[in-house]
Automatic annotation (TrEMBL):
Pfam family membership, one: DUF5916
CDD domains given in the database record: CBM9_like_2 (cd09618)
Organism: Gillisia mitskevichiae
Record protein name field: DUF5916 domain-containing protein
InterPro entries named in the record: DUF5916 (IPR045670)
Signal peptide: 1-20
Keywords, in A-Z order: Signal
Highest taxon listed in the record's lineage: Bacteria
Sequence ranges assigned to domain DUF5916 in this UniProt record: 236-813
Keyword Signal assigned: yes
Length: 815
């Protein structure tokens, strides 16, 4: 009882200190800059010779944020910024002085890709809430990038239309930027009060400076902006833009050539000064990147990253609570794997689409003056059917594998004190007819105390799955306390889910029925030492339990560190010991588990200086099991070549091997069959880019993944109730052979051209080959030869997207 009281006091005492909070200024006072209204806009060409700039005051006296802490900028490398505005936009002129301009790195890249270049950035927070802001970046090569920021998180999938140009001379480099008000969201009032931050990265010195001081030991970067005053009598413009597109493609496979043409429209509309509607009508995702498909031998589905821009841009509200896995929309139909089972006598499967067609999707998001974020998302997918044919009479019939479905998300996120938030989110999937529906509601909080020294975060989520025969309700929760200030830090956390928690209609959740505990402590530096710029070491321990029945599944303890020296050479290590583990998922049958011995994981990496023309990343991982011949080993090599400022390439090779693992084979009546399995994998990939300039580029992407799973003969077993395995005489036939040989090849070659602001043309050639068989005894070279014997799919496509801004089009038509 005494321990419980002490724990409650430890958790709750810091909460009593929560008060309304001003922006953090720490040991440096908050700077302020008064913007000047101008009558004639400057020519945005990167040359700061417009007469208006001579009349605008300077923002200067930058201070170091990396690797040091508040050190004034070098006298040889001052940064001078000027800001003005008119009725249409704000304008920024920045001078990045460098006494060694020949050392400035200038790698040419495309939008949102900085690589090895100096850069200048502007962070603008139009609501001065210490949390949400927009970042604009321009590099010393002239490439631009923009991101939506929330705390220390950057989302570069966010894109708006703005202008930026650079120039060079013998004193350094210069940037001139125009940010239209249509690229920002701000309230309609007589005088705006924004916060702003300027930053500069000097790559050859390995130093980063900001205009307003940032204390890295406490709080978030977005809480350290300076103030921007003086912007008066501006009206939020009509934020309406259209992105019409057209695409054409030719596809050749197995001697058949097909061509297609499609057109559609995306648009954005500012419903108010704070809220924006995004919609995609007749969407086309034909040129999205290939998924990194692998041989999946585990009990869980393989998760893929999102490659469709509509589902990555401006989705920060919808991803709260990790309830939204956008790949569910337009994913494999829920009845895809059962289509074969629905065949009648003399029927064959003619067509079985592996994706449901997305008809349209909309999202509305924004934040009020009081810090309330509101998000609404809705998407509709079409009914998907498999086609079955009677081989006797030749007649076809259809089977619905995915009914017409609606996907919906509603989010409310209240931010306060410039460092805390409380959120409510609901996701819902409704399928037409007698099919599975899903609904999940989550309550989240993320609270920092007044001094930003402690963070309290937690979630409570309830799932409800509606099936024909019953409704199933589940629950999950998490809670953590983190010390978030200073060199020494610590944290405790708890995570729970009951056995019926299921968010997989619109989310992604692999496990449930757990009751886990976590504790850690760490030490980090904020100023460089004689040998290191960055150092962080962490000690942690976890204890995992099953909720029902209440038993331990495993425990572990570990340590990891990460460091970067003065020459930008990074290295780190990870060591973890795990006790004997009860795996309740590998058996593929509810309530059954298999035991795995205690083990130790050793992981280490090195990464050389990317500023050099050649750099190398190496990562190696070994997992060894005690009193067992089971082990795993992986090594990854990533050499990086920068042949010139225009041409670069990254090659990656990964070799993995897993030996003597007791693995699932098959289910029989009241029996779970296991076998002793070896797995070997090799992955080769290349990413290369030739940039003619910052608007045109050739890009090559290649990946080949090979994996074999080989079950050892006469080493099969059945699972006992206590998790042990007994030898079993399992007869392997051609039909039930568990061995696998998997090989896949993807090749993309594209030319992209940003021919106007927000507008782009992409010409893409791609080919792909896939092979899967049971030849687990062959080597990589033989498997590759067999792969090339398969039919090659080739595809050539052209996609054009044109940006139309209502305000510009309106003026053109008036003229």
């Amino acid at each position: 009882m005494l321990l419980r009281k002490i724990f409650i006091l430890f958790v709750c005492f810091p909460l009593f200190t929560l008060q309304a909070q001003k922006p953090i200024t720490s040991k440096k006072s908050q700077k302020s800059y008064e913007a000047q209204r101008i009558g004639t806009a400057p020519t945005v060409d990167g040359i700061l010779d417009d007469h208006i700039w001579s009349e605008i005051p300077d923002a200067t006296d930058f201070v170091m944020v990396e690797p040091g802490d508040g050190t004034p900028s070098r006298t040889t490398h001052p940064t001078i910024v000027k800001l003005a505005y008119d009725d249409e936009a704000i304008y920024i002129a920045a001078s990045m002085i460098d006494n060694e301009p020949e050392r400035i790195l200038r790698q040419f890249t495309q939008r949102d890709n900085i690589e090895q270049s100096d850069f200048f950035l502007i962070d603008i927070n139009t609501y001065n809430d210490g949390e949400n802001q927009t970042r604009f970046v321009i590099t010393s090569a002239g490439a631009i990038a923009d991101a939506k920021m929330s705390g220390n998180d950057e989302d570069y999938s966010y894109n708006v239309v703005w202008e930026g140009e650079i120039s060079f001379d013998d004193k350094g480099w210069y940037a001139e930027i125009k940010i239209p008000y249509a690229a920002l969201r701000f309230p309609k009032k007589e005088e705006q009060l924004w916060s702003i931050q300027f930053g500069r990265n000097i790559l050859h010195l390995n130093e980063v400076y900001t205009w307003n001081y940032i204390d890295k030991s406490i709080g978030k970067d977005t809480q350290y902006n300076g103030l921007l005053t003086g912007i008066k009598n501006i009206d939020p413009p009509v934020r309406l833009s259209f992105y019409p597109y057209a695409s054409a493609e030719v596809d050749n496979f197995q001697g058949n050539t097909e061509s297609s043409f499609s057109a559609g429209l995306d648009f954005k509309y500012g419903i108010s000064d704070a809220f924006t509607l995004d919609a995609t009508l007749i969407p086309d995702f034909g040129q999205t990147a290939f998924d990194k498909v692998e041989l999946n031998l585990g009990p869980f589905e393989q998760a893929f990253g999102e490659n469709r821009a509509f589902f990555t841009e401006g989705t920060e509200l919808f991803t709260k609570g990790n309830l939204f896995y956008s790949r569910r929309i337009g994913d494999t139909p829920i009845g895809f794997n059962t289509a074969q089972a629905k065949l009648l006598d003399n029927e064959v499967l003619i067509e079985n689409p592996d994706k449901a067609d997305l008809l349209n999707a909309v999202k509305i998001s924004g934040r009020t003056n009081n810090g309330l974020g509101v998000g609404f998302f809705n998407a509709i997918t079409n009914e998907t059917e498999a086609i079955l044919r009677d081989t006797i009479n030749g007649l076809n019939r259809t089977v619905v594998t995915e009914p017409f479905a609606n996907y919906n998300i509603v989010v409310l996120d209240q931010q306060y004190n410039q460092n805390s938030s409380i959120s409510l989110i609901n996701t819902n999937v409704t399928r037409n007819g007698h099919a599975r529906d899903g609904n999940v509601t989550g309550f989240l909080f993320d609270i920092n105390n007044k001094s930003n020294s402690f963070n309290y975060s937690g979630e409570a989520k309830m799932s409800n799955v509606n099936k024909l025969e019953q409704n199933i309700t589940g629950f999950a929760s998490s809670f953590s306390i983190d010390r978030t200030k200073g060199n020494f830090r610590y944290a405790i956390a708890h995570e729970f889910a009951n056995e019926t928690y299921d968010i997989n209609d619109l989310g992604l959740n692999f496990t449930n029925n757990y009751n886990d505990f976590h504790i850690e402590t760490s030490y980090r530096i904020f100023e460089p030492t004689k040998t290191l710029n960055t150092f962080n070491i962490r000690l942690f321990a976890d204890h995992q339990r099953r909720y029902i029945p209440n038993i331990e599944t495993s425990s572990n303890i570990g340590i990891n560190y990460f460091a970067i020296n003065l020459e930008r050479f990074a290295f780190g290590n990870f060591i973890k010991y795990t006790t004997k583990r009860k795996d309740f998922f590998e058996a593929r049958r509810a309530g059954k588990f298999v035991k795995y011995n205690d083990n130790i994981i050793l992981d280490g990496f090195i990464s050389s200086d990317y500023r050099k023309k050649f750099a190398l990343d190496i990562n190696a991982n070994y997992q060894g099991f005690f009193n067992s011949e089971q082990d795993n080993f992986t090594i990854i090599l990533n050499p990086r070549f920068r042949f010139s400022n225009k041409f670069s390439m990254i090659y990656s090779v990964q070799y993995s091997v897993s030996n003597n693992r007791n693995s699932f084979v098959a289910l029989e009546t009241k029996k779970e069959i296991f076998g002793l399995r070896d797995v070997q994998s090799i992955e080769n990939s290349i990413q290369a880019s030739y940039n003619f300039n910052t608007k045109q580029a050739l890009n090559l992407s290649f990946r080949n993944f090979w994996s074999v799973a080989d079950f050892k003969e006469n080493n099969f077993s059945i699972l006992k109730e206590n998790g042990d395995l007994d030898p079993y005489n399992y007869q392997v036939t051609k039909e039930n052979d568990p061995n696998a040989n998997f090989n896949i090849w993807n090749f993309d070659l594209s030319y992209s051209w940003q021919f106007a602001p927000g507008s782009e043309a992409i010409l893409l050639y791609r080919n792909s080959i896939f092979n899967f068989d049971k030849q687990s005894d062959i080597q990589f070279t033989k498997s590759l030869q067999n792969l090339f014997d398969q039919d090659l799919r080739q595809n050539l496509s052209l996609r054009l997207v044109y940006y139309i801004d209502y305000n510009i089009a309106k003026n053109i038509f008036k003229g």
